[in-house]
Amino acid sequence: MEEVDHLAHERSKAQFDGDAMKVVWAGSKHALDVADRMARLVASDPVFRKDNRPMLARKELFKNTLRKAAHAWKRINELHLTEEEASMLRVFVDEPSYVDLHWGMFVPAIKGQGTDEQQKKWLPLAYKMQIIGCYAQTELGHGSNVQGLETTATFDPKTDEFIIHSPTLTSSKWWPGGLGKVSTHAVVYARLITEGKDYGVHGFIVQLRSLDDHSPLPGITIGDIGTKFGNGAYNTMDNGVLQFDHVCIPRNQMLMRVSQVTREGKYIVSDVPRQLVYGTMVYVRQTIVSDASKALSRAVCIAVRYSAVRRQFGSQDGGPETQVIDYKTQQSRLFPLLASAYAFRFVGEWLKWLYADVTQRLQANDFSTLPEAHACTAGLKSLTTSATADGIEECRKLCGGHGYLCSSGLPELFAVYVPACTYEGDNVVLLLQVARFLMKTVSQLGSGKQPVGTTAYMGRAQHLMQYKCDVCGAEDWLKPSVILEAFEARAVRLAVNCAQNISKAPSPEEGFSELSADLVEAAVAHCQLIVVSKFIEKVQQDIPGRGVKEQLQILCNIYALSVLHKHLGDFLVTGCITPRQGSLANDQLRSLYSQIRPNAVALVDAFNYTDHYLGSVLGCYDGNVYPKLEEEAWKDPLNDSVVPDGYHEYVRPVLKQKFRVSRL
Ligand SMILES: Cc1cc2nc3c(=O)[nH]c(=O)nc-3n(C[C@H](O)[C@H](O)[C@H](O)COP(=O)(O)OP(=O)(O)OC[C@H]3O[C@@H](n4cnc5c(N)ncnc54)[C@H](O)[C@@H]3O)c2cc1C
């Protein structure tokens, strides 16, 4: 195929240093270097080919995933990759598999909940992949309500063992990734029963399959839960079902960092604080926010490049038609998503810092910021994954009909991404947790207890309840302090309104339940404020590179003002801004879209994604879309023969009228 860069003209229009922006996106020069090397390593290895994925039947697809996972592990060892390089390599292999749960959930669960002794025993095996683990919490009957789990772990002092049992159909473990066909071990969550008393849900390490022939151990029934949404997509993962019939495990396989059962069967809470467990949750959710920015940026990269290539209408005297990226409606849908991808990238980066801060504080027995950090990560997980899932679908629509083809990469990206709104906590359930925390914070405002971290602004509630936005012209909306105060006032007022309405209910619980839809909106407002404020903080730092800071400033303003525009109702009903000020914000937004337009392609180039990772003929770097679309079409198995299988049985008889037609 000819080697012409069809987007060269777009690239030449950029008003900033693209290499410097790549460093900002990656987080550092070192991170960029690692990501770049790993992406190229994967892209150049034929085993990691993925363009045929949507066409493979489930069994073939799954076997191919196993092959890739094994090959990745081989390469990691052969090349002596560091932990950082290995995890990047897995990112670019870009195929959900048991490996994700092994490294992402099983290992952190043991690290977070295991004693030193348990860590010493299990982690080396896991690190060398001599055992493969998964995270078995959710059951057929209960997911969000973890306290409702039914699997039991009953201590038997006679044998010094726990008996793990699934007493009902609904207690079957259902959904854990990697469980269905691969994992040899699992961290299983079960109700701990000892001395006849139920102590609630605890984690246990349970071996599931023989390390010799992979057959399930006695008392264990195990399998895959079935095909999931989309072609390819998450069907590479063996989400599993698991039932226990009185399976015995040694007592020391209960994860005993925060509580223990003694040889005699006494339940004791250790002096290690329970809150430590939350540290793991902060870690896992921080990675989910990072993944959101990756998924959204991929979709946006495809939609921006294709929108610059695609032309429709507007041709005068036989001249070229208009690039669809130049339509204002296209810009008003696309550029807020581009800005969101950057916003989520920076909030994800900040969450990494937060995790380090929480870990340090936990080590010093300082738990003061933990509830706030916990609420903040729960909220950001919910906000970023919902916006990303919606954003990928919007990008598909932005690519018109061709976006619906698997070769655009968007259908599979959507299908593989949407469950992020559900796993690691259903997004609505998480927002309700955030709302509960906000209500508690509001109730303590008069007590002198100062709100911390991302809720610190609530300490200025009195001022924010009185606040009047002083925007007089569209350019006033470019001031970070103006944007911040408007978002703070909206968040505080929505929260305080909810608290006041709850106080009128017969009981706080009834009030909370009645107002839950409003509470979710208050929680969203709080989380959007966090994203806006972290973007502003980022832009206020020293950022090297010609024009880089200016572009980020524009993106930051686009993010904030597009959120404001979308939620204008909130800002107006809470009286934070006037209708005129809302309209000025919209004027400013239009101007910002025009400013970002010449830089759009270069801004997605800064993600530094290889064509392999993007997996999209519409988003390919050189923009040579049409020949690639055609090439992909001819690769479809349906085109293997010109006359389709089935013609003689089912098409010819219709054409030749060989059916007995009764009435005609
Ligand atoms: C692809 C995928 C991978 C997964 N991987 C794993 C894994 O590795 N290990 C594991 O243990 N689990 C896993 N899960 C399970 C996942 O964690 C649960 O599905 C998730 O926690 C949601 O729980 P649920 O399915 O019970 O939803 P439900 O709680 O039944 O939610 C159903 C609906 O009810 C609403 N709802 C529920 N409670 C409330 C409430 N209190 N107030 C208002 N609305 C409410 C929800 O918003 C939702 O709309 C996975 C799930 C998926 C889809």
Average of per-residue pLDDT values: 96
Number of strands: 13
CATH topology of the largest domain: Butyryl-CoA Dehydrogenase, subunit A, domain 3
Count of alpha/pi helices: 23
Beta-strand proportion: 5-15%
Pfam families: ACOX (PF01756), ACOX_C_alpha1 (PF22924), Acyl-CoA_dh_M (PF02770), Acyl-CoA_ox_N (PF14749)
Keywords: FAD, Fatty acid metabolism, Flavoprotein, Lipid metabolism, Oxidoreductase, Peroxisome
Domain Acyl-CoA oxidase C-terminal: 480-656
Domain Acyl-coenzyme A oxidase N-terminal: 19-132
Task: Label this structure with key terms.
664 residues, alpha+beta, Butyryl-CoA Dehydrogenase, subunit A, domain 2, Butyryl-CoA Dehydrogenase, subunit A, domain 3, six-stranded mixed sheet, three-stranded antiparallel sheet, 52% helix, binds flavin-adenine dinucleotide
